[in-house]
Amino acid sequence: MTPVSPPVAAYLEAAARLDAPAMLAPFAEGARVYDEGEWVTGREAIAAWIARATLANEARPEVLEVWHEEGEERVRARVVGSFRGSPVTLTHRFTVTDGRIASLRIG
């Protein structure tokens, strides 16, 4: 499997443990996350998104595939949790800049 960068690995490992502070740690100050049709911007908004989207639904990713395309680290994961439709397979598209996650698009 193609390796992921340290910040992406840290995020994925923390998400699997439902560790919100560790999930937030790799994001840059002005990072953006796109999930369920909306963008959230900045660490405070991302922290709220983590609580709402991940912790409240106990959503844990199980990595299936990793590849690099168009300047992104792409991770296909089976996400299992307490949400309707679980499990679901989603692609996470990470952009990493200066060793921090600058953006994450989930879909």
TrEMBL record:
Residues 8-103 form the SnoaL-like domain. Pfam families: SnoaL_2. SUPFAM superfamilies: NTF2-like. InterPro entries: NTF2-like_dom_sf, SnoaL-like. This is Nuclear transport factor 2 family protein. It comes from Pseudoroseicyclus tamaricis.
